[in-house]
Amino acid sequence: MHEPFSEQRSLSPMLEIRRLEGWYGESHVLHGMNLSIGEGEVVTLLGRNGAGKTTTLRAIMGILDRAEGSIVFRGRELLGLPPERIARSGIGYCPEERGIFSDLTVEENLLLLPVVGEGGMRVDQIHTLFPNLKERRTSYGTKLSGGEQQMLAIGRILRTGAKLLLLDEPTEGLAPVIVEQIGVAIRLLKQKGFTILLVEQNFHFASSVADRHYVVEGGKVVDEVGNADVAARSQQLQAYLGV
Amino acid sequence: MAMAPLETRIAAVNGSAGRGKAAIILLVVVALAAAPYLIYPMFLINVLCFALFACAFNLVMGYSGLLSFGHAAFFGSAAYISGYCAKTVGLPAELAILVATSCSAVLGLVFGWVAIRKQGIYFGMITLAMAQVVYFIAVQAPFTGGEDGLQGIPRKALVSGMAPMSDRQSYFFVLAFFLIGFGIIYRIVHSPFGHILRSIRENETRAASLGYDVDRIKLLSFTLSATLSGVAGAVKAIGFQLATLTDVEFFMSGEVVLMVLVGGVATMTGPVLGATIIIAMQYYLSEFGSWVKALHGMIFIVCVMAFRRGIVGEIGAYLSRRRG
Amino acid sequence: MMSIFSMPADVFLGQLLLGLINGSFYAILSLGLAVIFGLLQIINFTHGAQYMMGAFVAWMLLHYFGIGYWPALILSPLLVGLLGVLLERTLFRKLYNLDHIYGFLLTYGVALVVESAFRAQYGVSGQPYRPPSALSGIIDLDFMVLPIYRLWVVAASIVVCAATWIVVEKTKLGAYLRAATEKPVLLRAFGVNVPRMIMITYGFGVGLAALAGVLAAPIYQVSSIMGGNIMPVIFAVVVIGGMGSIGGAILTGFCLGILEAFAKLLYPPAASTVIFIAMILILTVRPAGLFGRTR
After folding, report:
1. Which residues pair with residue A18 across a beta bridge?
2. CA Rg, chain C, in Å?
3. Are strands A76-77 and A66-73 parallel, antiparallel or unpaired?
4. How far apart are CA B175 and CA B32, in angstroms?
């Protein structure tokens, strides 16, 4: 079991997940997830395909078929709330499939999401962060490259004022140059005080941006590694990830 | 006269199932034989024709997973053709039915060929459109008698020596066709072909990947269903001596969906039960006019919201829950 | 006398106008159906009954409350639309997890109940409904006579259809609709109350049907069978136009109205079937309809 870091964290974590069970239809995927994230931290969920990382994010957003346990965000229980209420409590979701609306232009996509909190970035600030989005403003969602879609997916939620960002495999399938750009963006967001829960299979990228890593296997957390220890435990991590 | 088909069925069942099943069959036979002496034969004829229609429709709705909104086209056109052959051409009933059924088969093939590749709701829409064309033809065509329909269709059959049959005799005549039709559907459903149909309904892409020519199979099922619906319509015209626009209008297509839904989709006896209930309602509540239709609508709603498996389906599910 | 396409001008223009009028109703009704289908993925079979209710409510407002045409144009769609919202909230919502066919069957059941109830109560003969005095009368051109009310119907339809199209394609509200049509669950996870949107959209589509009913009342008379008669045609229009396409529905509605009117001139017996034959032909060549997008 993992203990060390829980004591060092601030008294009330921003997000606390306890005993989370989750199902896709009949299939029992999460078997008691436990994790917590403090305000301003960047934390990753590492693990193989099918470990339950994406499922956990979906459970948080309330779009999983069935879930039991406890998900507390800033003192409020999220489990059982409709997805729109969860989002409006200040959480931004960037799904694995990116979810760019093909019937809408880049600009429409960017402006679509309702504001869920104060202090959201302005459109010009997002354009500075991701210049491609400004260039491709009037293109329809389907016409974007993978990297541009990812930037749009992240840019969208930055506008909403969400303080906790859930990013599901933001670097998947992207060229190293784009991955670098995204890494820069995430570090910048961290500076600005965003809290980020990141799902990643690429732990080199993960360790370049995160403070802590949870290792997920078989639907629960099996290990926790501080970013400083990643190098020392890299072999063990590689074994977890089946690399 | 109409006994041969019954006997062969009893023989077939006795060989396999055992005394329990044979006893039920015997009971059914006795009930069917005695029925016209206890209940108004025209009512029974009505039930039998629609029961056959509903069973035939169930072949596509329940067992193939295709929702057609145009089956009235097969039922109604067969009724008109059979009526015309019997009344104007003077054919004996059996031949009139044969001619009408052949036409239904062709019509079913045409409808099916056009519609079968469409998925989901498009299939229903196209069958609806084609049925509308048939309806408009029925309204316009000189031989259909327009608003009045074809009346006074003679009930002269070969088996009655070309003498007009009485109500009771007509009942047995219709019963024979019902049993033949029901038997055919039973054989289809329980054959390897029927199994393939069901696997297509469950998961079409998987059936295709296993090498089945899905479109061809669906087309065959649809054509069979159309043909048997034609039998029902043709027989109805003879039995009732009447073929009207009601038989071919959209509401009729909706009625048969209702019968199958109420009775039980993808069961053999469900459509029969559903037809009996709906026809009985029409007879015993006829004084309420359009309110009966409204009641049908309410039953539709209740079935869709709460009893999607229909009466027979729900009973079946209840029994299997109790068993284990 | 002038001749257009070897037809006398007044006959040609007369048929054109007739086609435009029928086309106006086809356009508004199929627009409503397309909007509903786009978001709910349900073919609203009740549409015809709601169109009929729209006409009846206008008639009832006049008959029982002395409320005239102009207020009815707003009140009727509102009332019928509200009933639609109620329907969605209580019944439809429960069926979204199932095969779409059940939603369709439900709308058929509701249509049956509504139409039969009105029929039982009012019979099949039409109740007359006079157009408001401001719109009665005619414009007398040299070669033909234009009834003002009919011109109004065409103009009103064009405005309503254009306004709806603009809202859906060009505004932020429409962007939400388009996004919800594409990825409803994800949109909820972004904070948009999609269930409420669905409810309101259904109400709007139904309101459009009712509006068509009010417009139709002075022309076609108010009868319990007006919905049933027009439904198969509307289905054909929506399918030809492409099930999710709003622009397609509008354009196809007007065009088919005109096509039908000219078919009546050339070969009257087939006129009623020409739309369905067109549908069969077009679907064979373009399975998703003229403007449809295979998703």
Report:
1. A70
2. 19
3. antiparallel
4. 8
pLDDT top residue among B86 and C137:
B86
CB B237: neighbour CB atoms within 10 A?
34
Give pLDDT tens digits for B17-50: 567 778 888 888 888 888 888 888 889 999 999 9
Using the beta-carbon criterion (under 8 Å), do B136 and C273 form an inter-chain contact?
Answer: yes
Q: How many helices (H) and strands (E) does chain A have?
A: 10, 10
Q: Where are the beta strands (DSSP E) in A102-209?
A: 164-168, 195-200
Query: How would residue A11 be classed by pLDDT, with cut points 50, 70 and 90?
Result: low
Residue by residue, DSSP assigns B72-85 as: HHHHHHHHHHHHHI
Q: Tell me which of C93, C108, C286 to substitute to probe the interface with B (most B C-beta atoms closer than 10 Å).
A: C108
pLDDT in tens, C169-202: 888 889 999 899 889 999 999 999 999 999 999 9
pTM reported for the whole predicted model: 0.86
Q: Are C46 and C204 in contact (CB under 8 A)?
A: no
- B133: chain C residues, CB-CB within 8 Å: 273, 276-277, 280
- Which one, of C248, C232, C259, lies nearest residue C290 by Cα? C248
Tally Cβ neighbours within 10 Å of residue A177.
8
For residue A84, the chain C residues in CB contact (below 8 A) are 188-189, 191-194
User: How confident is the model over B104-124, as pLDDT tens digits?
Assistant: 999 999 999 888 877 777 788
Terminal Cα distance for chain A, rounded? 23
More confidently predicted of C6 and C195: C195
CB atoms < 10 A from the CB of A96, how many?
16
Q: Which two tokens stand for residue B132?
A: 């509308």
- What is the reported pLDDT for C61? 93
B194: its two tokens: 């029927």
Which pLDDT band, with edges at 50, 70 and 90, does A4 fall under?
very low
Distance from CA of C38 to the nearest CA of A (A): 12
CA C20/CA C26 separation, integer angstroms = 9
**Residue written as tokens 């500075």?**
A128
User: Of the candidates A116, A193, A194, which has an alpha carbon nearest to the alpha carbon of residue A159?
Assistant: A116
Could you tell me where the DSSP H helices lie in B17-155?
A: 19-38, 41-61, 72-84, 93-115, 120-140
- Which chains neighbour C (Cβ–Cβ under 8 Å, 3 or more pairs)? A, B
Q: Please tell me the predicted confidence (pLDDT) of residue A1.
A: 43
Q: In a 10 Å sphere around its CB, with 0-12 CB exposed, 13-18 middle and 19+ buried, how is residue B14 labelled?
A: middle
Asked if residue A123 has pLDDT above 90, the reply is: no
C49 CA to chain B: closest CA distance, Å?
Answer: 13
Cβ neighbours of residue B285 under 8 Å, at least 6 residues apart?
B291, B292, B295
Average pLDDT, chain B: 87
Cα Rg, chain B, nearest whole Å: 19
- The β-bridge relationship of strands A42-46 and A195-200 is parallel
Average pLDDT on C259-274 reads: 83
Strand partners for C286: none
pLDDT in tens, A138-167: 888 888 888 889 999 998 988 898 999 999
C67 strand-pairing partners = none
